[in-house]
What we know:
nine-stranded mixed beta sheet, mainly beta
Amino acid sequence: xxxxxxxxxxxxxxxxxxxxxxxxxxxxxxxxxxxxxxxxxxxxxxxxxxxxxxxxxxxxxxxxxxxxxxxxxxxxxxxxxxxxxxxxxxxxxxxxxxxxxxxxxxxxxxxxxxxxxxxxxxxxxxxxxxxxxxxxxxxxxxxxxxxxxxxxxxxxxxxxxxxxxxxxxxxxxxxxxxxxxxxxxxxxxxxxxxxxxxxxxxxxxxxxxxxxxxx
Length: 215
């Protein structure tokens, strides 16, 4: 699917609401579970307002790249830009289940795969076999909304080896997007997707503005 010349743009990014300390000394609490704060200041030259941003890279809608697991893995700045845009297939799962290879029959090589489930109750989870199926096609990128990307068996008591979707995909330079929203509003199964990370050297994950363009 080429970039649509015309189409409806759907924002798939969650709004991040940090706490903010203003130059007046007033502090407004944010709503993020993880550390996320803005500190307002005025520049010493033209007295414009700017902010210090104190947070982490895994907040809001973000993409994780190989450097998240592997010290020598590619960072956000090193991944090819075309990885983060292209044709996407959107798959829905209505209840808690284990998502396996049979659920990916409509996935093609080079797809961006976006999985979602209605909120409420335990989320569906991708099995190790499902992750291996996606890596073997191979897909370009995986994104989730109310779907666990990790096989619960990877964290069973006594497990000595991590074996989950993160391991399977990131080892093969396939990024994972977490924190997507609004996938349920997309009117069709195949859309053009774009979610570009910041070009920051060494960074293992980046906030993105994820959008779908529906032809």
